[in-house]
Amino acid sequence: MGLAGLTDLRVVFVGGKGGVGKTTMAGGLGAHAAGQGKRVLVVSTDPAHSLGDLFERSIGDAVTGVTAGLWCLEIDPDAQAQRHVDRVTEQMKGLAAPAMHQELVRQMDTARHSPGAMEAALLERIAGLIADQGGDYDLLIFDTAPTGHTLRLLSLPEAMAAWTDGLLAHNKRSEQLGQVLKHLTPGKRGEEMPTPFDDPREDAFAGMDRRTRHVAETLLERRRLFHRARRVMTDGQRTGFVFTVIPERLPILETARAVRTLTEYEIPIRGAIINQLIPDDADGEFLARRRQREARYLDQIQHELSGLDTLRVPLQSDDLQGVEALERGLIPILREHGV
User: Fold this and answer.
1) Facing residues of 65 across strands?
2) What gap in Å lies between CA 75 and CA 275, rounded to an integer?
3) Which residues pair with 242 in a beta bridge?
4) At what angle do helices 77-93 and 101-112 cross, to 10 degrees?
5) What H or E segment, with its residue span, contains residue 70?
6) What is the radius of gyration, based on Cα positions, of the chain?
């Protein structure tokens, strides 16, 4: 697999260390694909959004049209977590006595601020976009947060699936224990003993009361969503991960670690875009020394990321802002490489 044909995929992740130009690359890929006649949604998952800065317009937490065939979205993790909590709160109110509603609201508001709440809500939004194969877009491009954050997002489906299974198992075991104790209580005769506990995915709701069943169904539906998204993310025919890296020591080392980790998670890696290279026609003694230093780092990239297709993007004389600037400075390079 390589960078050629990248925009023919269903989902593309653009990741890397902070400050290497991920947003510019994600936006450039989106504008390039839209120019090919595709309907493209570029999604920023980084809390420090800059898609709006790139396209010189307000975007925010709602799908916003940028140009023909290109839309953008900057997910607000806090707003996403609030929407999730509000939805769950309303569901739980229907299961709880009215006298408990005030306490329920207080507890759910506390949950919104708990560690991992925003990250889990963000993942749910991403998973929903990925799993919606019958959606309005031919291509989803995710401008991801710095690498460490992205790796946590990609590993959460397995963690949350295990957590859900454990919770359902606990619920079912607790109910069965209650039935056993009830059966052994004096005066309780003739009640059927519970069967041994089975895998929670098999008849997971058996014996649950209405409230427990509702919670279990909600958890299992989320788990199914995460797994649908996971199947797409690990399918090299539909998904590809592209790193943006600059010729400096720390971004190179972090990218090399991320490549190894994503490979363990079976995420298909299509290649790396080497950004901010000194142009060949730049002159002067200072730039000559910088070019020598850059050459050493390019050798290191070749060593650390051996086997990955790479695309080189020179440093621009001006900021790449707006679709027209991307069409002049970046898109011709993408087109020449067959992306």
Assistant:
1) 71
2) 25
3) 14, 271
4) 160
5) strand 70-74
6) 25
Domain count, the chain: 1
Give 75's contacts (C-beta < 8 A, 6+ positions apart): 43, 44, 45, 61, 122, 125, 126
User: pLDDT, tens digit, for every residue of 215-252?
Assistant: 667 777 777 888 888 888 889 999 999 999 999 999 99
DSSP label at 117?
H
pLDDT tens-digit readout, 163-199 = 666 666 665 555 554 444 444 444 443 343 333 333 4
Q: Residue 140: CB partners within 8 Å, gap ≥ 6?
A: 10, 11, 12, 40, 41, 43, 129, 130
Report the candidate in 102, 141, 170 with the shortest Cα–Cα distance to residue 241: 141
Range of the domain at 60: 6-81+113-148+229-337
Dist CA 115 CA 111 (whole Å): 9
User: What CATH code is carried by the domain that includes residue 270?
Assistant: 3.40.50.300
